Amino acid sequence: MEQEFFEIDGKNAWAEVFQQIRSESLSYNFTYKDARKAENKNLNRYRDVNPYDHSRVRLSKGDKDYINASHVEVPAARRAYILTQGPLPITTGHFWLMIWEQKSKAVLMLNRVIEKNTVKCHQYWPLGSKHDGEDEMLLTDVNLKVGFLGEKEASYYTVRELLLTDLESKESRVVLHFHYTTWPDFGVPESPSAFFNFLMAVRESGALNQDVGPAVVHCSAGIGRSGTFCLVDSCLVLIEESGCTETIKVRDILLAMRKYRMGLIQTPDQLRFSYLAIIEGAKQILAGQQSSKKVPCTHHSEIQDGKIIKKQVNNIDVRGSGSKNAEVECDGRQLLIEKDDSETEPPPLPPRTTKPLTDISDQRLIPEDRKVFTVTDTLKTVYSDSPTSGLVGEKWNDINVIGEDISINNKDSSLLLENNVDGELRKRNCKEYTDKTAVTIHKKRQDSETWRPHSLLLKQISVGLVVLFGTGVLMYRYYVRG
């Protein structure tokens, strides 16, 4: 899946991929006649977003059974959701009646009430006296009451507890309201990590479990942001169960989900973000699985003295970290799986080699996080001005050699070069050569210092002779030829 993401991203082909998904899903031959009925048209927030007849949610009470909401299922992930539009003032009662009848534990709201100065959703829950609002909301058309119990705010979402009461039976249920407040319309969340944290908070509440009714997920139209959430959650469930990402086909899963509700995921950016969120979530989930010592199982072979004699659980090899046995949680009990000694220890590492690193066959032994280069070109030496200071530095190919390592600064990065065995030998030979050279230069400079006074005296005698010679010539011209 990651490879698919990078291929699409490298070609900047998200618009093309999104259009392919859209074109294929437009070929679905599903009807939405109920949504187009005259008595139901005013119950739809958008004219072009309608629930299919075969998957729409049907209300049991009241004079209408219609609501713009769809059952969306991903059987492979054992996930079931209800995706719906943001309630209108005239559909708020229908919205809460659906939650009551479907026995949903949570509502996931992925939009704000007002976005870009436009009302995207009716205020369908009581704000509470904390926000200068009412603590209760009566829905007389469906004979329900919604009460505000409390809320907890995070940096980018809020979790509320609401009490839903049937006024006829006096039965009440607590409904969790997860409100993602920083996801823009037709846009994507701030980061995949922030979205993943929100998703995990929803999961930890038990709202997505199979033993409760389907979670109600909505944005404004109930297809873009809502579809993104359900696609990411379902794909992560499949990755968690399979233990890998290679078998996950995101486009196929999205196309299957679009058979339940039209238009899920509205933009190429939302499709790209879905991939990013799945990749980010998969890394965290798989890392948690690798660090866990317990291996989940749903079946076991024969038990002898409280031990399962089995080398595999759910077709997964059980391997410990140097131990012979591994704990297994099976049927609510902690049992022990025995393993062969031959499977306990990993294979030994290859022996160290003394070959030079220029041999390609040995480069696999070099740690991946360190790029190693070998330099075999001409050695240059650098001296200071003082003859007693000796060797200051060495250069290979104009690269300064410092200590045990060679430091290179290039345009993009700083790489670490290590000397191999041959390099050390060359260094010692060069050191001996440069030491001898330094002594020779020092001796020459001492000789030049010794001859410096004599050269000064010779210069003075030469100047005197030139002056006497010039004076004699002038006197000759004046007296003899005068």
UniProtKB/TrEMBL annotation:
Which InterPro entries does the entry mention?
A: NR_tyrosine_phosphatase, Prot-tyrosine_phosphatase-like, PTP_cat, Tyr_Pase_AS, Tyr_Pase_cat, Tyr_Pase_dom
Highest rank taxon of the organism:
Eukaryota
| Keyword Hydrolase belongs to the record | yes
Q: Where in the cell is it found?
A: Endomembrane system
Q: What is its EC number?
A: 3.1.3.48
* Classification via CDD domains: PTPc-N1_2
Q: Does the keyword Hydrolase apply?
A: yes
Q: Which UniProt keywords apply?
A: Hydrolase, Membrane, Phosphoprotein, Protein phosphatase, Transmembrane, Transmembrane helix
Q: Residue limits of the Tyrosine-protein phosphatase domain?
A: 14-281
Instruction: Spell out the residue ranges making up region: Disordered.
Output: 336-359
Q: Where is the signal peptide?
A: none
Chief localisation class: membrane
Any stretches that span the bilayer, and where are they? 461-480
Residue ranges annotated for the Tyrosine specific protein phosphatases domain, each copy included:
193-272
> What PANTHER family does the entry give?
TYROSINE-PROTEIN PHOSPHATASE NON-RECEPTOR TYPE 61F
Q: Which family does it belong to?
A: Belongs to the protein-tyrosine phosphatase family. Non-receptor class 1 subfamily.
Protein name from the UniProt record: protein-tyrosine-phosphatase
- Per the UniProt entry, what species is this protein from, by scientific name? Limulus polyphemus (Atlantic horseshoe crab)
